[in-house]
Amino acid sequence: MNHPVLSSLLPVVLLIAIGFIAGQRQWIRTSAVKDLSNLVFVVLAPALLFRTMSTVHVEQLDFKPVTAYFVAAGLIFFGTLVLRGFSRTAAVLALASTFSNTVMIGIPLIGFAYGDAGLVTLFTLISLHSLVMLTLATVVLELAVMRESAADGQRAQRHMAATVALAVRNAIFHPVPLPILAGLLFAQTGLVLPAAVDRPLQLLGTAFGPLALVLVGVTLAQTAVGTHVRGALALAAAKNLLHPLLVALLGWALGLGGLPFAVMIVAASLPIGANVFLFSQRYAVAEDLVTAGVAMSTVLALATVSLVMALAGRLG
Questions:
Q1: So where are the chain's domains?
Q2: Dihedral, CA atoms, 156, 286, 164, 74, nearest 10 degrees?
Q3: Are 24 and 221 in contact (CB under 8 A)?
Q4: For residue 126, which of 273, 245, 249 has the smallest C-alpha distance?
Q5: Fold of the domain built from segment(s) 4-315
Q6: Which residues on adjacent β-strands are paired with residue 272?
Q7: Which end of the chain, N or C, is surrounded by fewer C-beta atoms within 10 Å?
Q8: Contacts of 129 (CB under 8 A, 6+ apart)
């Protein structure tokens, strides 16, 4: 249990397992899952995101080590859209192939393996991770929703510029990007959250990770996972193996090395983050497949992250 990978991943697997048992025994019924998803997405996630970003000062961040990470994620994200076609399903699966569990798993894992120096690099990534990946996914999803609605005759076809403008507006005024932007703006003022505000936000944010993972387990219990094994394996392979491989290749091409490079490779190998499941719930698409993908990616990470860490140590 002292191994950093096992110490970080087993609690996540156990939380999903607890949710699975609760779902199987009907302690949490199907009718309640949507409400719990809204609680996590609309209340807990904004509290966590705002509080985390409220202490980030942009001028202190070193963006060089994370360049390879986001370039690799972008190649996979848009490559998925090209292969699967522009739709809500493709957008959610593209996010699943690129969005790492950097907080729940990444922080303890990197802390155990690389110490404070590694955490500095990881926190630089975390400060941008949700802002870049979730905002990108939201813009694409909002555009896809508009396109599908127009195709169904629910809306008149808009001029492309107007469509993009509305999608960006919907992406900003959204439970995920909005608290990130608000937290960043607050941090630049130099002010500190008063304890009476910070403490409730901390409590809400702390509840996010466990409840989100338990919710994955509940949905997993209500899902015929056997019918999604192949798709879940494909998502896990893209996230756990393809993403770190591309980061390693791009980092090598950019001349990166040392501890920051190793941390970015390992961060890219982290399993699919629970936020992807929440996006699939919110946009009502690929819920069963994403649920199976998150679970399989997390379980397989016990082996794949260990492999990537060993190889990253040599490259770094």
A1: 4-315
A2: -150
A3: yes
A4: 273
A5: Na+/H+ antiporter like fold (1.20.1530)
A6: 100
A7: N
A8: 99, 100, 102
The owner of tokens 């509080």 is 51
Tens digit of pLDDT at every position of the chain (316 positions): 566 667 767 888 888 889 999 999 989 888 888 888 888 888 988 898 888 888 877 776 667 788 899 999 999 999 999 999 999 999 999 999 999 988 878 888 888 888 877 887 887 888 788 878 888 888 888 888 887 776 655 554 555 566 566 666 766 677 777 887 888 899 889 899 999 999 999 999 888 888 888 888 887 787 766 778 999 999 999 999 999 999 999 998 888 888 889 999 999 999 998 889 888 988 889 888 998 898 899 888 888 998 998 888 777 5
| CA dist., res. 105 & res. 239, Å (int) | 14
Query: Phi/psi of residue 272, each to 5°?
Result: -60, 130
Return the structure tokens found at 59: 């001028």
Looking at residue 156, what is its pLDDT? 46
- DSSP string of the chain, one letter each residue: --SHHHHHHHHHHHHHHHHHHHHHTTSS-HHHHHHHHHIIIIIIHHHHHHHHHTT--GGG---GGGHHHHHHHHHHHHHHHHHH-SSHHHHHHHHHTT-B-IIIIIHHHHHHHHHHHHHHHHHHHHHHHHHHHHHHHHHHHHHHHHHHHHHTTSSPPPPHHHHHHHHHHHHHSSTTHHHHHHHHHHHHTT----HHHHHHHHHHHHHHHHHHHHHHHHHHHTS-GGGGHHHHHHHHHIIIIIHHHHHHHHHHHTT--HHHHHHHHHHHHSPBPHHHHHHHHHTTSSHHHHHHHHHHHHHHHHHHHHHHHHHHHHH-
